Amino acid sequence: MKFTMIRHASTAYGLSGLYMGKLDIPATQEGLNQASELGLSLQGIRFTDHVSSPLLRARMTAEKVFPNRSIKIDDRLRERDLGMWAGYSKKEIRDKYPEAFLPSGFIDPYYTPENGEPIKNMISRVKKFVIDIEKMNENDHVVAITHNGVIRVIRCLIENHPFQDIFSEAEPHLTPHSYQYSDNTWSTISLNYIFDEF
């Protein structure tokens, strides 16, 4: 089976350097226009299941990328709850909690903001989603619209990268990551490879 995941379109909070976490922030109109363009580029791919995080920015993106498709909502794909940090500027939080950040400037995934979701809890719910994906039929191709943190966790799980390495990289908006699961093994595939099959 195949699996593609895509980070939602940009948001005003993200562009302003504010943390969102599970805050239900909409995508920008410009981001949604880009999502529509992405959808046009993906029309030649036969996705069997379209899944989205329940958060508004992801759902809006999914509806633009896949208009006229039934979008399933999966709560396991929601972004990590950043607790008291949500709504505050990244610079302000970095200045106040320097111990919570990697040398790259990104959050240390093992640090839990006050009232936030521990990374082990996030890994647990995301891992359950991945396990369910692995149980799907060999001809299925699932596409999920989700968030920065969720994509990083999934990449760690199926690409076997150390957490701190993945969490030291930026995850761009509207950029598909595609994989194939066969013989109990995940492998990275390109969208060009998928197009070649149709």
H/E order of the elements?
EHHEHEHHEHHEEH
Helix content: 25-40%
Tally of discrete structural domains: 1
- CATH C-level: Alpha Beta
Looking at how many chains there are and whether they match, the oligomeric state comes to single chain
Give the N-to-C terminal Cα separation: 15 Å
Mean pLDDT: 93
Structural class: alpha/beta
Shape: globular
Please report the total strand number as a whole number.
6
How would you describe what is shown here?
With 198 residues, the chain is an alpha/beta fold. The protein has helices at residues 12-15, 29-41, 56-65, 90-96, 119-134, 148-159, 163-166, 191-196, and strands spanning 2-7, 49-52, 71-73, 141-146, 177-182, 185-189. The protein is 36% helix and 15% strand. A 6-stranded mixed β-sheet has the order 3-2-4-1-5-6. A hairpin with a 2-residue loop joins β5 (177-182) and β6. The two termini are 15 Å apart. The model is unreliable at 193-198 (pLDDT under 50).
Topology:
Elements: E1 2-7, H1 12-15, H2 29-41, E2 49-52, H3 56-65, E3 71-73, H4 90-96, H5 119-134, E4 141-146, H6 148-159, H7 163-166, E5 177-182, E6 185-189, H8 191-196
Helix pairs in contact: 2-3, 5-6
Which key features would you list for this structure?
alpha/beta, Rossmann fold, six-stranded mixed sheet, 8 helices, 36% helix, globular, disordered C terminus
In short:
The protein is of the alpha/beta class and about 200 residues long.
